[in-house]
Specification:
about 5% helix
Length: about 160
Amino acid sequence: MAENDVISATGTVNAVDHADVTEMLSFEISDAIYAIEIKYIKEIIGVDQITIVPKIPDYIKGVINLRGKVVPVISVRRRFDMDEIPYDSRTCIIVLEFEDGEQVGIIVDRVQEVVDVKPGDISKTPDSKNINANRYIKSIIHLDNDIRLLIDCNKLINDDRGMII
């Protein structure tokens, strides 16, 4: 067995081709598990001092100072039109960074783990408007008898006019 081989549930040895694997960070919002491609993750920090900015949408909690850079912070719960809950020791901000260098923080209930996702683990969201009512979901990931909802980071931080802040 080679270093990158994996033993499947049936006991057979399967070689893992890391070229076809995408790393994703999974996290919780309410009872659902979501994921973001690791390429967007700059860092994960605790919820600290968020400066409130007046007259902005309610899902934007404000801005933080991240080593001298002003970073807007979004509540994923509010963006998904869910009720807010009090922050606890596991609530954190995932700082996303985009190709243009723009950074945005998203507040999540709990960070879980980084998972390796193969193309066969990903499926499109159903076309039904009732099932795919959340336009921020890019696709569905099936891993270890769990379903994770892959977030479309660009749609999450943009509205019809572009970047939210």
